[in-house]
Amino acid sequence: MRDMIIASTSTLHGGKYLEYLTSVLVKRLKRVDASQLLFIPFARPGGISHDDYTSRVREVLLPHDIEVVGLHTQKDLITAVQNAKAIFTGGGNTFQLVKMLHEYQLLAPLRQAIYSGTFYLGTSAGSNICGLNMRTTNDMPVVQPASFKTIGAIGYNINPHYLDPDKNSKHMGETREQRIAEFHIYNNIPVVGLREGSYIDVQGDQEILRGELDARIFEQEKNPYEVAPGYDFASLA
Amino acid sequence: MRDMIIASTSTLHGGKYLEYLTSVLVKRLKRVDASQLLFIPFARPGGISHDDYTSRVREVLLPHDIEVVGLHTQKDLITAVQNAKAIFTGGGNTFQLVKMLHEYQLLAPLRQAIYSGTFYLGTSAGSNICGLNMRTTNDMPVVQPASFKTIGAIGYNINPHYLDPDKNSKHMGETREQRIAEFHIYNNIPVVGLREGSYIDVQGDQEILRGELDARIFEQEKNPYEVAPGYDFASLA
User: Fold this and answer.
1) Which among A112, A195, B132, B137 could bridge A213 via Cys, Cβ 3.0 to 4.6 Å?
2) Out of A140, A161, A163, closest to residue B136 by CB
3) Which residues from A are below 8 Å from B149, CB to CB?
4) Are the CB atoms for B178 and A93 separated by under 8 Å?
5) What gap in Å lies between CA B142 and CA B176, rounded to an integer?
6) Residue B190 predicted with pLDDT over 90
C-alpha cells in the first residue's frame, strides 16, 4: 500500500521553500499519524550542509507540530528508515544523493518501507530516485555513484523540472526532449516529464498527476504525448 | 608536443556542421601532412549510427581531399589510434562516448597519441573527454560508463556549450554556474566554461583561447572570472 508524493520541484518561482506543498504534506502526515518526519539531506543543493538542509525543512514544519529528524544524525541509518512513519528526500544533486544511498545500502530498505506503506515525499532529486534508475536526471555528474540504480517505487523514470524547448533560443546544446530521446536509444523505460508545480500522488495502485499543468510522457519508439491532471500513470509500469 | 583544437560546439546557430571550424581544421591537417582523419563517432548525437555520423564528417572534408575513416570500422581500434596522424572525436552523449572508450580501452592510447603529437580535434563531448574527468558534462547519464575518468590531455575540465544564467527565466532548475559550483563542493579541478564559437588551441605548452567570446573560469573557493581571447589556460593545470 504505497503512499507517496513525487514532486517535480520543492519551490515554485516567487514562492518559498515547500510552500505550495506544505498543506498537502501536513494533511498526509496527519493521516498516517506521523508526528515525526525523517529527512534525507544527502542531495545537498548548492553544497548546503546536512544540518543546514535539515533546518530548512524543520522551519517549514515547526508551525505544524511536526518534528524533523535528519537521517545523517542517526546511528543506524537502515533502522531509522525501517522505523520511520514518514520520509522526505529533498532535491539537489542526484549523483551525490545516489552515491550516498548506495554507500549506506539504503535503496532496498527505502523500497521496502515504501511498499510497506511508509509515507514518502520526494522533490526533484528525491523524485528521480523513485524511478528505476537515475538515467533521466538533469544534474551534473559531480561524483560517481557505485550504480545508477534507484529505488524502483514506480515502473518508469521521472524527469523533474521538465522544460519545454525554447523556440527562440540560439543555444546549440540539446533540448530536454532531445536528451530523453537519447535515453531511449539505450533504454526502453518510459519517462514522465513533470513540469514545475506538478506531482504524482501515489496511493496504493494509483499514480495520479496533480497540479495545474499537463505532464509529458516519453516512450521508446513513440511520439511523446501530453496527459492532463487526474491521469493515472500506473498503466505505464 | 600537443597539437589540439578543443571546441565548445561543432555547429553555430544558423551555420552548417563544422562550418566555422573547417578552414582552421584543414590548415592544421595539411600542416601535419594528414590526408586521412580518424573519426570517433561513439557519442552518437540523437542516436545517429556510427556510419551515418562518419558520413556527415566525410561530406565536410571531401572537397578538401581529406579521407575520413570511422574508428568503428577498424579491426584493431587501439592500433588505429596509434597509427593515426589526426583524430577527431565528435559531440553527442558524453556518457555513451566514455562508456565505449573504457570498453575498448582507448583512453590510454588516446592520451599517448596526443602527447606524441597526433593532431586532435574535439567538439562538445569530444572536448569534455580532453579534461581529467567527465564530471562537468551537460549530458544526461543515459548509460553508465565503467568510470568517469577521461583522457587528461589538459589539466582542467571543460564545460562546453557554456550558457550564462537567464535572468528572465522562471525555471527553478539549477543554472550552469550553480551546477559547476556543486562540482566544486566535491572536486578541486578548475573548469573552463567555453561559450559556443570558442575553442582552445593547444600547441605544445600553450593552451590559447580562440574565437570572439570570453571564457569563464571556475576554481574551487574563488569567484568565477572571465578571460579574453588570447588567454593561455596552461597555468590552470
Assistant:
1) A195
2) A140
3) none
4) no
5) 19
6) yes
**Residues of B in Cβ contact (< 8 Å) with A189:** none
- Cβ-proximal residues to B43 (8 Å cutoff; 6+ apart), any chain: B89, B90, B91, B92, B93, B94, B96, B97, B124, B125, B126
Q: What are phi and psi of A51, to 5 degrees?
A: -65, -50
Q: What is the pLDDT of residues A176-218, one digit of tens each?
A: 999 999 999 999 999 999 999 999 999 999 999 999 999 999 9
Q: Nearest chain B Cα to A13, which residue?
A: B170
Residue A237 has pLDDT above 80, yes or no: no
Specify whether the CB–CB gap between A78 and A106 falls below 8 A. yes
Which residues of B belong to the active site? 124, 139, 161
The Cα-based distances of B116 to A27, A67, A228, B2, B122 in angstroms read 66, 62, 58, 7, 17
- Domains of chain A from N-terminus onward: 3-161+190-214+228-236 (3.40.50.880)
Take residue A124 and report the three cell numbers written for it: 526533484
Q: How far is CA B192 from CA A11, B6, B159, B213, B231, in A?
A: 30, 11, 6, 13, 12
Collapse the DSSP code of B123 into the 3-class scheme (helix H, G, I; strand E, B; otherwise coil) and give the result.
Answer: strand
**Cβ-based burial of A85 (10 A; exposed 0-12, middle 13-18, buried ≥19):** middle
Q: Distance, in angstroms, between B222 CA and closest chain A CA?
A: 15
Alpha-helical segments (H) within A84-220? 94-103, 107-115, 125-128, 176-186
Q: Which of B17, B29, B158 is nearest to B87 (CA)?
A: B29
- B134/A141 touch (CB, cutoff 8 Å), yes or no: yes
Amino acid at B125: A
Give the pLDDT of residue A170: 82
Distance from CA of B116 to the nearest CA of A (A): 30
Chain A nearest-CA distance from B181, in A, is 7
Question: Is A166 a known active-site residue?
Answer: no
Residue B115 to residue A45: CA distance in whole angstroms? 38
Residue A14 burial (10 A CB sphere; 0-12, 13-18, 19+) = exposed
Q: Looking at chain A, which residue has its C-alpha nearest residue B157?
A: A142
Query: ipTM score of the complex?
Result: 0.92
Contacts of B43 in chain A (CB under 8 A): none
Backbone angles phi, psi at A107, to 5 degrees: -65, -45
Chain B contacts in chain A segment 51-80 (CB below 8 A)? none
Which residue in the list A55, A161, A214, A232 is annotated as catalytic? Answer: A161
Coil/strand/helix, residue A146:
coil
Report yes or no: B172 and B205 within 8 Å, Cβ to Cβ.
no
What is the distance in angstroms between the Cα of B194 and the nearest Cα belonging to chain A?
12
